[in-house]
Request: fold
Amino acid sequence: MLMEADHDIATDIDVAIPVHLRHLGATTLARLTGNPDGPLIVALGGISANRFVASGEYRSIGWWPGLVGEGLAVDPARHRILGLDFAADETGLTAPTTHEQAEVLAAAVAQAGGGPAVVIGASYGAMVALALAEARPELVAKLVIISAPAEPHAAATAIRELQRRIVGLGIETGRALDALSIARGLAMTTYRTSEEFAERFVGGIPDEDPLGISAPGAYLKARGDVYGDVMSPQRFLSLSASIDRHRVDPAAIPHPTLVLAASTDRLVPAGQSAALAAALPDARLHILDCLFGHDMFLKDAEKVGALVGPFLEDK
Reply:
């Protein structure tokens, strides 16, 4: 019988990046947590997510509380949980496709004992999950796709391109971290909704200074300034652009798929998720009302988990 303490054991895995993708580095890290005899679940988030989905560096909770944890939809006592540090070009000069990222994920799954796995992805991670299912269907049992399309929306590409131009200018002028902070703040306005900002902040600037900091501006600056702790400007360029290289053919993905979307998502409008679900051969769709827009998978994780849990158990 597996002892309770075994659920807390986490193993880091050095994942060899395929030779033809070595511009993304020689290796990346994955992390395997939970019941070693349980079914394998891969959990992937946005470009800022990492391998610590189920546990932190000091046995703390991981980055997806509310969905992953004791007694939740993804439970270390029942499941073998794999998280991944995405591969990126740390020079910022090239962007992998989501299919290339899926090759790295396939290597991680193989080193974790092999599939087929249930792959739960949100945002960029869901794009990678779709790419893996298309290219390596034998590694996938089921998919949960949260806030991700078959291809990027033009408006979303436009806003990300502006962010990359800001960061590129910062690198050229020696103010890369300042630029990354601004780009991250701009991104936060697309992750959340106007309604949430109205609930939290008062609009307007404090005085005649055109560069005066407003209440929402102070929040965005604070979030942007700490972003450099987890993301370099060059890595951001590589992974942000990877989103805009994403393309899959949903008709080629036969796996049972749960598609979840936020009705308020500005980056992946609910209509894109509905179109994805309609094009997948075996999909069910839920569009959820959510104050938090694209960040639903993080901020409303319990609501997401209430749908994910039954889907995982469904035979």
